[in-house]
Amino acid sequence: MGSEWWCLLVCLALSGAADAVERQWRPVDVILDCFLMGEGGHRGGFASSENMVKALLVLKQVPVPDDGSLEGLTDFQGGTLAKDDPLITFEASVEFQVTTQSPSLNLLLGSSASLHCGFSVAPGLGITSVEWRLQHKGSGQLVYCWTTGRGRAKREGATLEPRQLLQAGDASLTLPSLTLKDEGAYVCQITTSLYRAQQIIQLDVQAAPKVLLSLASEALPPTLICSVTGYYPLDVSVTWIREELGGDPAPVSGASFSSLRQSVAGTYSISSSLTAEPGSVGATYTCQVTHVSLEEPLGADTWVAPPEQRTAFGVLFASSLFLLALLFLGLQRRQATSPRPARTPRHSG
Prior knowledge:
The chain has 349 residues and is of the alpha+beta class. It has helices spanning 3-16, 18-22, 162-168, 307-337, and strands spanning 26-37, 52-64, 75-78, 88-99, 104-108, 113-115, 118-121, 127-136, 139-147, 150-153, 173-175, 184-192, 196-206, 210-217, 223-231, 237-244, 250-252, 256-257, 261-262, 268-275, 283-290, 298-304. It folds into 3 domains: 3-96, no CATH class; 104-206, Immunoglobulins (Immunoglobulin-like), CATH 2.60.40; 210-307, Immunoglobulins (Immunoglobulin-like). 21% of the residues are buried.
């Protein structure tokens, strides 16, 4: 079989999958057991089985429907290479394929992950091993390995169901209690007695931020502190909004930020401070946080009273403390000056 025949074989396979790409189906690896047929060394019809040449074709990341079927990929037929050339046809049957229903996952810190990896094999073709590996930031590590009936977990808690593997063609991996170290690209590699194929699942771990708004200083003008803690990944947006009584909310500029802090678990924290200007009627200040882990912005707000109310409140508070102090001193003096009862002497018999 000449090199031009192999070229034609591959070209026909790719042309047959063109419509599938346009339909945006999910990609899988497909191994095809092919028979290329010719007649007397010339391109043409099929005279006998002696003219059938066995070939193997591996299609990487071929689009297939969500149900895993190979519609449109089981029979290929190409046009003529020249006007006078007869038609060439080759037939293919699926020997082995690996698929996934979850090529990308975004999960919260502490949750559980189910990484789907399914496969189908031709009758008589047995699975010899399943290997899950994690690739992240240029380094790789083994997560789970199954070989001829025996599984070994390298990541604590990682599980794979042997019964599902052997009976349902399901090599999915479960990871409980996700940490930031679990983030990365997971490679599901399945090996048979003849072939090897894989799928890649990207797992991104996220942690939602917590927001706390407090008054840092009672002095005029007051200072507000917005603490944003426990978020991952790094990018976060903090916006200040001011709303006077009866007015419209408006963004506020002039906020300052602390240095970034990272916990032992790998999550981040940052603080933002703002000098409040309540005006003559007071205002509500909102600290609004946007992060990839949040479906909508998260906010915390507080009311800042005008200076007149704050002064009156301060005078009332100081007066109350003064009255309480006087009352306490009066009670102490009364107890000190009140006569003590005389003791009755005891007589010994």
